[in-house]
């Protein structure tokens, strides 16, 4: 075989090795969601690659047969093609034996370098950069190779399966997608500029619905505007003007005995039509949804969907009303900073190292604002006020403070045992992370 033919054969072998390398990496790097989308659009090659991802054993067996066969042939042909010429060239300056040895080493290095660069590094970088595009191009050729090498593929695949069974390992790819996977993808999208930071936060909030208690989104008992069943017309009209809400609970005697609710639209209609308002009218008072305060936001949404309501009263284990929640409250929790007037913000950042936070702020929002993973005894409270009570082991007083995790939580204002405002300040890095209570 002439030198030209040998060099041409080396190029063919490099090309074959590059094909198997790019086929291997593209299958492993291809995203199933993208392939599924292409298959749904009618691309048969995408459907074929999905099948190969589900059962990749035969596919990778062909790849390894091809890579190893090409590597062996490349070594044989490369040494025979380049070694004589390099030896002859080196004999002009070196003894024959030294020239032969050095010629063999140089031939080996040249051929190995060509294979590393053109048959391994470049194809794999290409496959990683454009996995689905490359995978679709190699799908049919790989299917032909699998059919051509079927007997060898069957033998090696069965041997590999037997070894895996003996070791107790699974060869089936786990393609389950968790909420953590989706959040990781959205965070990567936000860093890349594909998603806005606020959009990424909305997605994260959606996944928190299953773990976030409904109490974190409710209107507290003390802030609920309600009517008594026997309230006169004048009092109802005055309360509507003073406390305009979309929905009002209707109670018998006190707030802990809710008998229904009235929609502000129905009240406004009567006002506009100059009709008297009486809450003893069963046509005006609607049946109210009562839910436990230990439900999650996702569970409350399911309750809303089931009964076709958007308002619920929350009660604790002693049947005392602790607050009310509406569909708008839940959606405001999801949308975060995208909705809601500025004057109702519960967390106000004063500067780079301090925040002014309302005591009833849900602890999840506090963690997010301070970029903390958790606070101690997190299962015992749901708000910042609850955190301070647990840490102080008493009802906090003004100027009481807690040091934890590099932050100082200081009570600024208390109104009738209710913590109104808390100043949170970031301490110096050398501050002790262990909880410290001051009061």
Automatic annotation (TrEMBL):
Belongs to the UPF0053 family. PaeA subfamily. It comes from Comamonas faecalis. The lineage of its organism: Bacteria, Pseudomonadati, Pseudomonadota, Betaproteobacteria, Burkholderiales. This is Polyamine export protein. InterPro entries: CBS_dom, CBS_dom_sf, CNNM, FAD-bd_PCMH-like_sf, FAD-bd_PCMH_sub2, Ion_transp-like_CBS, Transptr-assoc_dom. Coiled coil: none annotated. Residues 1-199 form the CNNM transmembrane domain. It holds the Pfam family CBS. Involved in cadaverine and putrescine tolerance in stationary phase. May facilitate the efflux of both cadaverine and putrescine from the cytoplasm, reducing potentially toxic levels under certain stress conditions. The chain crosses the membrane at residues 6-29, 59-82, 102-122. It is found in: Cell inner membrane. Keywords: CBS domain, Cell inner membrane, Cell membrane, Membrane, Repeat, Transmembrane, Transmembrane helix, Transport. It is a multi-pass membrane protein. Residues 284-344 form the CBS domain. PANTHER family: HEMOLYSIN-RELATED (PTHR22777), POLYAMINE EXPORT PROTEIN (PTHR22777:SF16).
